[in-house]
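Quality-control log, excerpt.
Job 1 of 2 completed; input and output follow.
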Amino acid sequence: MADPKGFLTTPRQDWPRRPVQERVRDWAEVYVPGALLPIIEAQADRCMDCGVPFCHEACPLGNLIPEWNELVSRDDWRAASDRLHATNNFPEFTGRLCPAPCEAGCVLAINQPAVTIKNVEVAIADRAWQDGLAPPKPPDRLSGATVAVVGSGPAGLAAAQQLTRAGHTVAVFERDDRPGGLMRYGIPAFKMEKRHLDRRLAQLRDEGVRFRTSTEVGRDIGAAELRSRYDAVVLAVGATAWRELDVPGRELAGIVQAMEYLPLANRVCEGDIEASPLSAAGKHVVIVGGGDTGADCLGTAVREGAASVTQLDIYGQPGAERDELAEPWPTYPKIYRLSAAHEEAGELRTAPAADADARLFAASTLRFEGDEWGRVRALHLVEVDEARRPREGTSRELPADLVLLALGFSGPERGAGGPVGQLGLALEDRGTLARDARFTTSVPGVFAAGDAARGQSLIVWAIAEGRSAAAAVDHWLTGSTRLPAPIGPYDRPMMA
């Protein structure tokens, strides 16, 4: 511990965001550039160096948080980068995108604001790139074994990097034209600029990872052929089977899935198209779903110039403080959080009738109403109780020219033409890929990692999955492994 009294004398200070009126006019990250490093050493000093650091347990990667907090407080960025990268392949991703369950598990959070672990993490990662502390690490020698990784999201990339560094020859197959998965086309640029992704992909290429983009397994190459050509296959295809909303009027034009809408906005930012055919510009937008994907749609619609944006959350509005009985420390609490997108919507008053910022809580969609041309024009909703039963006399109507469904995902795509169908892989009851304790599916030599097997989860769990699956593949190929396996396939987050 660099400062034994830091947690007593230094208040929590987060990375400041740019003014709302400035940042909604562009797609750059919402934070003030260069404003984190001047404050981060003092914030790292707030770490208590606990005898039992619960932040380790709250983080599936087992990040060595007290260690790199102390190193940052001592201005030893090289050592801090080494300790951070020892457990996390992509800390610049998690430092920007992870909701930080580690902070919920911070011992200081029992009765004070937690250490800004996420900010310290991203500061180390960015400083590592700035100072050249994250060079490529190609293997000293090749094993002669080959591995195909299907999917280039965080789980697939982590598995590919670990296996490549172990000496195996790895090819990553991605059906989109660029690698990155949801980080490329699902996450808006204002949450993470794509230069961070491109920089890490360049590192992987320099280490020897080969990328096969615009190649869909099952269509451009058969899944059985892929299995026969490679010694092992890792399926990291994500949970892309989106959930539907079965209410009257769903067939109307203008009602689309969030993951039909967000990629187009990202392609505008990439320069692929001039304007999105689903742009929210000038439209009354309603987002059905209260999670992070819904918030991503909210921030995107605001930047596209929507006439109004309202987000519906079927759950009631949470309180500002942790419920110690229902969600005791160190579990991740459901509390009222104000994301950058909600802050923007609240200040700009995109939904004047909303309960808070742009959200209507305890709201359930009843039906959609269309115009004479078959396009959606209104959404009818009702307030519900904790059991999701309608409250009498609470129905209302919202104008809606564009409705975005952000209801989550149920597992990987399971069509007969994809790898799941072509390989005849066994599934769990909830639709995810079945696997054993060594991440192996029902087909020998085929492994499953990430949301495809775990179900929809956090980026930090995806990276942990990729690292653990890589260790399992390495053991299967060679009979032993020195790769770390931070989690098992059946591990779950801490719950009350």
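Job 2 of 2 completed; input and output follow.
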Amino acid sequence: MSDKKQGFVPYANEADVVAVGKLMIENRLDRITISGDVDLTADKAGLAHARKLQALLGGIVATLEGMSLPAELPPPAVGEVDNPFN
């Protein structure tokens, strides 16, 4: 998993994952996947989570704004592989 020290460069690889609470932000070459949940509580921990999310989303928006974007991505190619257990 990557963290802020190493840097999360949106759309740069298929490996980086950042956790905010139980929320997972996964880097991909053509998308960022956000799954899970986080409580932004009215305390210092909630503020820290909110700031981390704000920084991550700000970086994602800035990266998207600097890209030449299609109107919509095509659906991913789906293929079949032989069952290795047969």
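Post-run check on job 2. The beta strands are 17-20, 23-27, 32-35.
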